[in-house]
Design a protein that fits this description.
By secondary structure, the chain is an alpha+beta fold. It has two domains: 86 residues, no CATH class; 114 residues, no CATH class. Helix 2 runs antiparallel to helix 3. 51% of the residues lie in helices and 12% in strands.
């Protein structure tokens, strides 16, 4: 029974890798050649070391293992990059990244939004609470996010005073903005200001805030791409 379960998991994993490869190739057509070159180049390095330092047979097993490892790392990074490329600029892209960072963070989506009939005119602010404090993440129409962030920061000041640090980030590729692909690292690099007890207290106080009627706009997000948790290759549904 256990053997069948392991075989099933292995088969599912291989199917997942094939699907991720297929999705990655849409954005990165040369991915196959890049992975092949990575594997052969790494393996060739160990062959050279075996020939020079000898014996060759002793260098081949670790060389093949490391070549597979390096190829897997390159594949994971390029797959993640392609996932960002597929969702960047689409409504809810920042939220997709935020929801992939579950450990240590409490994410509340769309705490503020500008009502608009057009998705391209909508701006949205999400809130994340973690060890650094409160982080307000704005995405959407860059001409509208400033007023939304200012309003939410005033709300946080009234609710939490000055004892809790409040950070803000606007998703974009311009000056003083955080590119979508860097959002996870931006959050990780923030200083750790609060302990777990304080985080629980903040979340309890913020839950008392009323929600908004504006719902998240549903743009043409890729249905079978889910952002990876804590790095690695994207997972597919």
């Amino acid at each position: 029974m256990a053997k069948k379960e392991k075989t099933g998991k292995r088969t599912a994993r291989m199917a997942q890798i094939r699907e991720v490869y297929r999705l990655t190739k849409r954005v990165d057509p040369k991915i196959g050649w890049i992975l092949l070159a990575t594997f052969l180049g790494t393996a060739a390095l160990f062959v050279v070391l075996g020939v020079v330092l000898g014996p060759l047979w002793a260098w081949l097993p670790p060389g093949l293992a490391i070549a597979l490892l390096v190829t897997g790392i390159v594949f994971g990074r390029r797959a993640e990059r392609s996932a960002f490329a597929q969702i960047e600029g689409q409504p809810g892209a920042a939220l997709a990244v935020l929801k992939s960072i579950k450990r240590g963070w409490t994410v509340t989506e769309a705490v503020a939004a500008t009502p608009s009939m057009r998705i391209t005119d909508t701006a949205i602010v999400h809130r994340a609470v973690g060890r650094p404090g409160v982080v307000l993440i704005a995405e959407g129409n860059l001409g509208r996010v400033g007023s939304l962030l200012a309003g939410e920061k005033r709300k946080m000041a009234r609710m939490l005073g000055t004892e809790v640090p409040v950070y803000d980030a606007v998703i974009g590729n311009g000056a003083n903005q955080v590119p979508l692909r860097n959002l996870r690292s931006y959050l990780v690099k923030l200083p750790r200001n609060l302990d777990k007890a304080k985080i629980r207290e903040i979340n309890s106080r913020l839950r008392a805030l009323p929600g908004i009627q504006q719902q998240m706009p549903r743009g043409p997000m890729p249905k079978n791409v889910r952002m990876p948790k804590g790095g690695g290759s994207p997972k597919v549904r």
